[in-house]
Specification:
globular, Growth Hormone, Chain: A, two-stranded antiparallel sheet, mainly alpha, about 0% strand, about 425 residues, 2 strands
C-alpha cells in the first residue's frame, strides 16, 4: 500500500543505519585517521602517489566495480522479486568490512596496514553502494509521486540525525581518551569503525522487517535472464529517446552529481592536506555539515513544493558552483568552517531532490529496479570520473585547490543542461503520468 506510514518509517531507517558509514568512514574519522597514520607518499605498482590521491583512486575503483555489477544484480532482483535479499547481502558485506577496520593499525599488520585499510574501505564502499541500489528502488513502491519529495527528504534527514548521534558518541570517546590521558592510543578511533558496522547491521533489521517484496514475476531464473540486466540497461537507455524530460534530467544529474559526491568524499582530505587541520577540527567540520544538512534537506523540500523541483535544483547547483570557487581561495580554518556550513545547507537538499525528481520522471512501469539501476550507474560512473579526476589534477598540477576548479566545471555543465528542462515541462510530465 502506497504512503503507509509504518512502511515509510521502516524504509527511512535504512538511511539512519547506513549513513553512519557515510559520515564516519567516508567523511570523518576514517579519512582523518588515514591521513594521520599513512605516510605522505606511497608506491603503487612502482608509481609514487600521494596518500590522498590513493584514497580518491580507491573510491573510484569501488564505484566502478559496483556500477558494472548493479545492472546484473538489479535485474535478477526485479525478475525474482527479491530486492530485499540483495539489499541484505550488501548491507552485511559492508558492515563486516567496517568492523574489520579495527585492525587497520601497524601494530597488527606491520608494513601492510595501509593497504589493509584501503582494501577494507573499498569493500565497505561496495557494500554501501550495492545496498543503496535496491533501497532506492523501493521508493516508488512505497510512496505516491506527489509525496516522494517529502519521503526522500525524510530518509536523508533520518540519515543525518542517526549518523550524527553515533558520530558524537565516537567523537566523545576519542576526546576523552586524549584529554583525560587514558593511554588507549588509537583504540577509540578504531573502535568507532566497529561501532559503525554494528550500528549499520543492527538498525537495518528495522528496514528488513518492515519492507515487503514486490511479487515474483517469473518462476525460473535462466542464464539468459541473469544477463538480462545489461539488456534492460540498454533498453532503458533506448527508452530515454521517448522520455525527453528524463533524458535531460539524467544528463544534468550525471555532471552535477559528479561534483557533489567528489566533494563529499574528498573534503576531509582537502582540509587535512591543504589547511593542515587537526583531527578534532576535521571532526567538528563534518559534524557542522551533517547538522546543517538536516535543515537543508527540509528547506529545499519546502522550496520544491512552492517553486518546483527544477527551480530548487537550479538554486542548489548555483550554490555548489560558488562553494567550489570559495574552496579554491580558502586559507584559514574559520573560512573553511564557513564553507562547511554552506556545504551542509545544499548537500542534503540536492541528494534528496535528485532522487525524488528522478522517481517522478520515470515512465509508468513495474521495472523500477532496472530504472533505478540506470540511475545508480549514472551516479557511480560520475563518482568514478569525479574522484579520479580530483586525484589526477591534484597529482599533476600540484595540490587539491586546483581540483576544486575542475569540480566547478562539472557543476556548470550540469547547470547548463538542467536549464533545458523547464518547470513547465516537468509539471506536464507529472500530469501525463497521473493520467496513465
Amino acid at each position: 500500500m502506497l504512503d503507509d506510514k509504518k512502511t515509510i518509517r521502516a524504509w527511512s531507517y535504512y538511511d539512519w543505519a547506513n549513513s553512519a558509514y557515510s559520515l564516519i568512514i567516508t567523511s570523518a574519522i576514517f579519512p582523518a585517521y588515514y591521513t594521520a597514520v599513512a605516510p605522505p607518499f606511497l608506491h603503487f605498482f612502482g608509481i609514487q602517489i600521494s596518500r590522498s590521491s590513493l584514497a580518491s583512486y580507491s573510491i573510484a575503483f569501488s564505484f566502478l566495480l559496483i556500477a558494472l555489477l548493479s545492472p546484473l544484480l538489479s535485474s535478477i532482483a526485479d525478475y525474482n522479486g527479491n530486492k530485499k535479499v540483495f539489499m541484505k547481502f550488501f548491507c552485511y558485506v559492508g558492515s563486516i568490512a567496517c568492523m574489520a577496520m579495527y585492525f587497520f593499525d601497524k601494530e597488527f599488520l606491520g608494513n601492510y596496514y595501509v593497504w589493509f585499510g584501503i582494501i577494507c574501505s573499498v569493500i565497505a564502499s561496495i557494500g554501501y553502494c550495492g545496498s543503496i541500489v535496491f533501497y532506492n528502488a523501493f521508493l516508488p513502491e512505497i510512496s505516491s509521486k506527489e509525496n516522494q519529495d517529502n519521503v526522500s527528504a525524510k530518509g536523508f534527514s533520518m540519515g543525518y540525525i542517526g549518523s550524527v548521534v553515533l558520530m558524537i558518541i565516537c567523537f566523545a570517546f576519542i576526546l576523552l581518551n586524549d584529554n583525560l590521558h587514558w593511554g588507549l592510543g588509537t583504540i577509540p578511533v578504531r573502535f568507532s569503525f566497529v561501532a559503525v558496522g554494528l550500528w549499520w547491521l543492527g538498525f537495518a533489521q528495522i528496514t528488513f522487517n518492515g519492507l515487503t517484496e514486490s511479487p515474483k514475476k517469473h518462476h525460473d531464473l535462466s542464464s539468459s535472464s541473469i544477463l538480462n540486466g545489461y539488456k534492460e540497461l540498454q533498453l532503458v537507455f533506448k527508452n530515454l529517446a521517448h522520455t525527453p524530460s528524463l533524458k535531460k534530467f539524467l544528463l544534468s544529474f550525471f555532471f552535477y552529481n559528479m561534483g557533489v559526491q567528489t566533494v563529499m568524499y574528498m573534503a576531509t582530505y582537502f582540509a587535512s592536506d591543504e589547511l593542515k587541520m587537526e583531527t578534532t577540527q576535521l571532526l567538528s567540520v563534518v559534524l557542522i555539515i551533517q547538522l546543517v544538512a538536516i535543515l537543508g534537506a527540509k528547506l529545499f523540500a519546502y522550496i520544491s513544493t512552492k517553486k518546483g523541483n527544477i527551480f530548487a535544483l537550479l538554486l542548489l547547483i548555483i550554490s555548489w558552483i560558488g562553494i567550489c570557487f570559495a574552496a579554491f581561495f580558502v586559507k584559514t580554518v574559520n573560512e573553511f568552517y564557513g564553507i562547511a556550513f554552506a556545504v551542509g545547507m545544499v548537500m542534503g537538499g540536492i541528494q534528496s531532490l535528485s532522487r525524488s525528481t528522478y522517481s517522478k520522471l520515470l515512465p509508468f512501469t513495474e521495472d523500477t529496479a532496472s530504472y533505478f539501476s540506470f540511475y545508480d550507474v549514472c551516479e557511480k560512473m560520475g563518482i568514478v570520473i569525479g574522484t579520479l579526476s580530483f586525484g589526477l589534477v591534484a597529482d599533476q598540477l600540484g595540490g587539491m585547490r586546483n581540483s576544486t576548479i575542475a569540480l566547478s566545471i562539472y557543476f556548470i555543465i550540469g547547470l547548463v543542461l538542467l536549464l533545458r528542462l523547464s518547470n513547465k515541462e516537468f509539471n506536464t510530465h507529472q500530469l501525463l503520468s497521473k493520467e496513465k
